[in-house]
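Sat 14:20. Reprocessing the chain from the morning session after the first attempt stalled halfway. Input below, unchanged.
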Amino acid sequence: MTKHQAHLQSTTLFQPLVVGGLRLPNRIVMAPMTRNRADDSDAPHALNAEHYRQRAGAGLIITEASQVSPQGKGYPRTPGIYSEKQIAGWRNVTGAVHRAGGRIFLQLWHVGRISHPTLQLNGALPVAPSAIAAEGQAHTDDGLRDFVTPRALETAEIPAIVEQFRKGAENAKAAGFDGVEIHGANGYLIDQFLRDGTNNRTDAYGGSVESRARFLREVVEAVAGVWGPQRVGVRLSPLGNFNSMSDSDPAKTFGYAAELLGRYGLAYLHIVEGGDESGEGAFDWAELKRRFGGVYIANGGYDRESATAALASGRADLVSFATPYIANPDLAERFRLGAPLAQSDGATHYGGDARGYTDYPPLAQPQMA
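Finished this time. Tokens:
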């Protein structure tokens, strides 16, 4: 790498940006990652606080997805944001991050059909926009179980789900977060409403793209009513096929969603850019950014060089990193120095204790003479 290239990367990645009144010291975002290390009551604890504290050098941390109700749970030991114990646990996390000089948003989550009766209160069926089962298996306390056909939500039930998101946003504020991100990606409930592969409703929440986006709109308005739109972000995955997702016209669906979200003056739009691009022509991510009109976070296999290029070209305003943050708690500093990255142990990504979670060391600091 030439000195000019190194300077370009440093100045581009480490150019401050103000987002929702928060001054981010760099353009490096820690993406949300489920790690299944909450306690038995799905509350964060001291180990989680240490994990996030170690990564406070990110311009912004977005936490792992956190269910807004017991119904929203889809995996063992994922943290919630609906009980007093969970709020207290998250308050310890935000305190640790803030003392280390960081900024942190909570990701609000409802998994919809990506759950199992063994994870639901009283063995209830998971809920979804339509009674369409996902392919594959759910992760439960008893191991993998085939996904079940979910129960389609009645129209009259949907406002109560919106209220779960609003209350989760309120609880996140009580826990000391700097803002919240609404999880509308990766095949979970909001994504299930948006895409016509999982939504065949005939009421006001199905059919046209405008109707399929209604649930997203109502959640955004409820959450923004708590935080103000400038402290609310949204994550979408237009081409993601995780959790057996599909849409007949993702450019139309997500182009509309981006324009809709752009009306609110949100903190940012966070886009998972990976997925199936096997159709005719590549998806136009730059057009999605243009339609939104605000701060755009790009995500999807970026490294130091490709992130720099995306920022320098104006195609993204921030870039989020997931897996690299597992083994590199000081990822931003490694990027600044052009230092090599450590590789994580996949066997410790989900569940367990401190091993593979808080025991990855930062770069060795030079000794004083």
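The mean pLDDT is 95.
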